[in-house]
Amino acid sequence: MTKPNIFVTRRIPEAVLKPLIEECNVEIWPEQTPPPYEVLLEKVRGRDGIITLLTDRVDARLMDAAGPQLRAISQYAVGVDNIDLAAATERCITVGHTPGVLTETTADLAFALLMAAARRLVEGADYVRQGQWVTWGPLLLLGHDVHGATLGIVGMGRIGRAVARRASGFDMQVLYYDRVSVDPELVGPNVEQVDLDTLLRESDFVSIHVPLTPETHHIIDADALARMKPTAILINAARGPVVDTNALYHALKEGKIAYAALDVTDPEPLPADHPLLSLPNVIVVPHIGSASVATRTRMGEMAVANLLAALAGERPPNPANPEVFERECRR
Ligand code: DGY
């Protein structure tokens, strides 16, 4: 029996690829940067399965370039906003992703950003490195208390709830905005569901945890930023385009909000000469929410398990387009 033909769009933790390499012919893109779209169109030709990253545009054209034998796309991420799921379903291609496994790690990072912005840690570290520390100062690098403050969580899915649990350890009051209500048992005390306007008006910290969809694109725009407190701190560890970058730049520059701490940006990567990086009240880190050794390894294991199941014509443990199983597909 011929082995399935697989393309992996970037190097992922090596150990997890073992079962894949045993069962399939695998080619791995060796570079640190993603394959350009036109190159990817070539690389996927004739493949039965692809392991993709959030940096790959996976659209109908790419699926058609691969050919009708393509039956599995396995995303090494929970977010699948780079994949045209409807196009995959239409073509009977199963898409897998990695939910759950990165929840706590991403919540850790979101909370680290919150703390770092509140207490101006990056500015403080730069101050010491630059040799500016000459004495203890009563007015030196004054920040904002985290304990007892109000945290507004936009999107109370798995990661939002994990951030809420961390906040309860800091005696924070948590407000959340979501289309659905969350079981209070899952989020702990001092948690209240409110509308977006109330959340923006009353929160000291606003942390975003929604997926990127047409509805959430620019949910934090100039109008939303204008409704926040001038002392408020915005945290984004979800997807860059959920925030209007230009509006954020102006809000920070004009003191409409106090600070932003971002794991994700629009554009991504953010060029070093981007105006946002000229501001002192911004922390940007390079989309490292899930970047712990353990979590990136587990994500890889899940991506491989999803791919192997889909190649075998089975329902993968974590399908991103479960509708595909309602279609009449020859698997
Ligand atoms: C995801 O999984 O969607 C994150 O953004 C990267 O781990």
Descriptive key words:
331 residues; Rossmann fold; 2 domains; seven-stranded parallel sheet; 14% strand; globular; binds (2R)-2,3-dihydroxypropanoic acid
Report on this model:
It is a single chain. With 331 residues, the protein is an alpha/beta fold. It has 2 domains: 131 residues, NAD(P)-binding Rossmann-like Domain (Rossmann fold, 3-Layer(aba) Sandwich); 182 residues, NAD(P)-binding Rossmann-like Domain (Rossmann fold, 3-Layer(aba) Sandwich). Helix content is 32%, strand content 14%. It is built from 12 helices and 12 strands. The strands form 2 sheets. A 7-stranded parallel β-sheet has the order 8-7-6-9-10-11-12, sandwiched between helices. The mean pLDDT is 97. Bound molecules: (2R)-2,3-dihydroxypropanoic acid. The site of (2R)-2,3-dihydroxypropanoic acid (DGY) has 7 residues, from loops. (2R)-2,3-dihydroxypropanoic acid binds next to loops.
